[in-house]
Structure to design on (351 residues):
């Protein structure tokens, strides 16, 4: 791995090196910034980045990408301006590591802030927030308040369930978790029963499933917790408040082992030119203050023990999260994706 100093010198050239040496701290101060390559929507991370700049004086620059982030960093090579990578989903965190565009971070503060099950054992990525994949259930038509993922394949629920595509990252992570707990054979049997219970072909996004429950198309759906908060408090699209009011959250367990959670997270880019500032940002994002901002503004669960979720999220009930390490779950993602195809989940019921 080339040193940051080495790659910086290459870029600056001889005269600039002389200037840097003469200017010393001044030049260093002018460089206090962090470049962020993000799969997360800019508006979701702005509050926490603003707080970071306010606290440290370090500026941030965000490049938002909705695909190809790791390919881009790989193509940029040693000249990549990327310092910190922000993304949702364990699969994407695993992908940036596998692509070789991250570097290991061994930092006491970060390690103390983030529990081991939410970070890469080799320090190549770290979870920052958690979201639970729960059941959205019709308030009107579903009496029960408890349910397991296994119940979703019970023939008693025939014709009652809506989901987005089985190939979406959120569903693949859940199916991978089921494989990690149950093995492939049992999970495939479950998936066939689940498919038979669908009310329609998988379609739309998580919020669309709540809308379908509101419209009476189905009684049960799978969705992430934060969308419930985003719908409930949505002033710009108030019809979403009606969708949210039609559902209640049920935290399903995997045979009593808790609810599947996924994470959003961060990684240090392999050739981070502003390494020290990047580490400063990573420490900040793992801190109690940043965790609180995430909890309040985007309705996610903090990864740090002792930081409370928002009042909105607390109103869903108690989250008892599956404790199987996400790195273990991620290993089954490919098997989950192949299973979705084999079962024909996205073809809908009766196919
Ligand atoms: Fe999402």
């Amino acid at each position: 791995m080339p040193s940051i100093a080495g790659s910086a010198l290459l870029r600056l050239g001889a005269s600039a090196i002389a200037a840097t040496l003469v200017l010393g701290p001044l030049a260093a101060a002018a460089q206090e910034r962090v470049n962020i390559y993000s799969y997360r929507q800019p508006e979701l991370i702005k509050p926490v980045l603003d707080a970071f700049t306010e606290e440290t004086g370090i500026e941030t620059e965000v490049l938002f990408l909705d695909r190809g982030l790791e390919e881009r960093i790989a193509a940029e090579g040693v000249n990549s301006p990327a310092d910190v990578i922000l993304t949702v989903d364990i699969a994407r965190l695993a992908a940036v590591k596998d692509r070789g565009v991250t570097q290991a971070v061994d930092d006491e503060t970060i390690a103390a802030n983030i529990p081991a099950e939410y970070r890469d054992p080799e320090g190549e990525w770290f979870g920052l927030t958690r979201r639970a994949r729960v059941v959205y259930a019709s308030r009107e038509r579903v009496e029960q308040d408890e349910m397991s993922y296994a119940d979703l394949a019970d023939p008693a629920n025939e014709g009652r369930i809506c989901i987005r595509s089985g190939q979406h990252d959120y569903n693949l992570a859940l199916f991978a978790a089921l494989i990690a707990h149950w093995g492939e054979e049992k999970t495939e049997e479950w998936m066939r029963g689940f498919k038979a219970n669908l009310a329609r072909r998988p379609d739309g996004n998580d919020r669309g499933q709540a809308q379908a429950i509101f419209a009476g198309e189905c009684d049960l759906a799978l969705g992430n917790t934060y969308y419930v908060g985003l719908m409930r408090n949505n002033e710009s699209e108030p019809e979403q408040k009606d969708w949210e009011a039609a559902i209640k959250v049920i935290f399903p367990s995997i045979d009593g082992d808790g609810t599947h959670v996924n994470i959003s997270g961060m990684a240090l880019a392999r050739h981070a030119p502003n390494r020290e500032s990047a580490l400063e940002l990573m420490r900040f994002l793992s801190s109690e203050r940043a965790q609180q901002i995430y909890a309040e503004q985007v309705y996610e669960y903090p990864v740090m023990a002792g930081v409370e979720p928002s009042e909105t999220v607390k109103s869903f009930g108690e989250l008892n999260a599956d404790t199987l390490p996400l790195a273990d779950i991620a290993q089954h993602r490919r098997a989950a994706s192949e299973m979705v195809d084999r079962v024909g989940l996205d073809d809908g019921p009766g196919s």
About this structure: The longest strand covers residues 126-138. The CA atoms of residues 111 and 119 lie 9 Å apart. Residues 1-29 have pLDDT under 50 and may be disordered.
